[in-house]
Amino acid sequence: MPDDSFFFVIEGIDGAGKSSIAVQLHEALSQTHRDRVVRTFEPHNPSAAGKYIRKVLAKETRASPRALALAFALNRVDHLDRVINPALNADDKGIVICDRYLLSSLVYQSTGGLSMDDVYGLNRWARTPDLTVYLSVSPHTGYARMRGRPTDRELFERNLAERAEQYRAGIALLRDKGERIIEVDANPAFDKVLAAVLDVLKDRGPAWLRIQPPLLLDWHESEPAK
């Protein structure tokens, strides 16, 4: 039986490749840890305020910055109660891979008079990840990958250079509070980025975490992460 659970978060600006990396990490870890591995995301659609947040992001409805920040905080606590904590606290303790978490809220909700400290205060009860990987990508690469998406851009998918600077500030704030955040260069081709993230998990993850690299059957060597 494993010694403990493991809560792993993937962060980055739009176009950094978070979702693609999360899918392949789930495949890699499931080969050795089977159904103990849970892949999830935020905002979490099935949790409280999830559909409302998605409508705001899709510009189908409007919300003040404060209302949206509160909605994200509510969504997070319900997501923790429904998905993350049950997996991590179970007898057969789980591995949770989460695509976006508190760091994203610090970046995207610190607007309209709300500071990062304000947003952190709304989420001060949130469970601390065991490890966060920040996929660092240039705005140019981020925009190029976003242009390849089949759907329209969401509310925050713009001003990527400004977002990258805000992520730096958010990372500094969370590191000051003791969080473990590792930066990975996400500009290269997908397979190289995935290999770098796997190396971080091997070096910084728990000793019991066994990883079998995925076969990447659906990816080409030069294909970018999305």
Could you explain how this protein is built, in words?
The chain has 226 residues and is an alpha/beta fold. It is built from eight helices and five strands; from the N terminus they run E-H-E-H-H-E-H-H-E-H-H-E-H. Strands 2-3-1-4-5 form a five-stranded parallel beta sheet, sandwiched between helices. Helix 4 (102-108) packs across helix 7 (160-176). The longest helix has 25 residues, at 65-89. Mean pLDDT is 89; it is low at 219-226.
Globular, elongated, flat, extended or rod-shaped: what is the shape? globular
Q: Which band does the percent of strand residues land in?
A: 5-15%
Relevant CATH superfamily: P-loop containing nucleotide triphosphate hydrolases
Helical percentage: 40-55%
Q: Could you report the average pLDDT, rounded to the nearest whole number?
A: 89
Task: Give, in spatial order, the strands making up the sheet with the most strands.
Answer: 2-3-1-4-5
CATH topology: Rossmann fold
* Class derived from helix and strand content: alpha/beta
Query: Which CATH top level class fits?
Result: Alpha Beta
Roughly how many Å apart are the termini? 35 Å
Count up the domains. Answer: 1
CATH-scheme architecture: 3-Layer(aba) Sandwich
Question: What pattern of helices and strands is seen along the backbone?
Answer: EHEHHEHHEHHEH
Instruction: Please give the largest β-sheet.
Output: 5 strands, parallel
How large is the radius of gyration? Answer: 17 Å
Number of helices, where a helix is a run of at least 4 consecutive DSSP H or I residues:
8
Low-confidence regions: 219-226
Number of strands: 5
